[in-house]
Amino acid sequence: MVNLIQPQVAGANGFSLYLYVPLTPMNKVFMKLNFCSLSSGSSGNCYWLGNELQGILIDAGISATSIRKFLKNIDISMQTIMGVLVSHNHIDHIKGLEVLTRKNCFPAFTTHKIRKSILSPKKKISPDCIHEIPLQQKFHLAGFDIEAFPVCHDAPETIGFHICAGDKKITIVTDLGHICQTAAPYIKAANLLVIESNYDEQMLANGRYPHFLKARIRSDHGHLGNHQTAAFLADNINDNLSNICLAHLSKNNNSPEIVLQTLQQTFSERGIILNGHQRISVLNRNTPTDMISLIEQTDSLQVLF
Q1: Domain 28-297, CATH
Q2: What angle do CA 293, 169, 129 make, to 5 degrees?
Q3: Could you give the CA distance from residue 105 to residue 97 in angstroms, rounded to a whole number?
Q4: What's the confidence (pLDDT) of residue 298?
């Protein structure tokens, strides 16, 4: 059977048509699924996930101009972006939403609480483009099955995303003070994990931040420190986790070298030896990080017209 389906969301030039061709188990399609961090840190967060046909953004915390530029640098057209997932209302996650929604008519997807918190006269984000999604219920966008789940952070509401494409699972959690029981299963299930490792505990303690800000960062609704992230990964490392991306590093209280040193030391103390197929990356703060590719096994061939 061949089904002609019109997607629910429009690209920059209107609706596109896709041909879905179901395949037999003996004739499955293997497609390259790509992930690229465009920016990760307190200055702005934006991630792209997609394939040759279409993709999505997770957060838009840098300018729309920068998003367009960075995507062009990795040979991705803005016309292939089917939507933006929004994790919470802090400016380093929504800076580019105003232009993307008002000038480019990009649809954005987030929960009712987050939608309400980002719609204000000052932000001038187009309300018609912000679509509500439920918590812990799957919805379909751009070929992905996506599930938003709550995490602990000091915003009206903050969510992570568990994204499935064929047999591949991607989990993105970039702002959380601790890993709660609700979030943990989504993180443990990932093949590609983007997880916060925000600060080095000693650098934060000895740094110039005022006491109240240090307390906020260290709190259960603040950010994950290097030792917290390293300990969780050491407790839950498995052969299905092929890519670990350490994200949202503090400019003043962390460095890529310290993050990796902390992780290596924690793994060594636990006697953990990686299987040789696992890749650990520290995401750049202000520039795109190298593309990560996964091979997605799918039951249907999708052709764009």
Answers
A1: 3.60.15.10
A2: 90
A3: 10
A4: 53
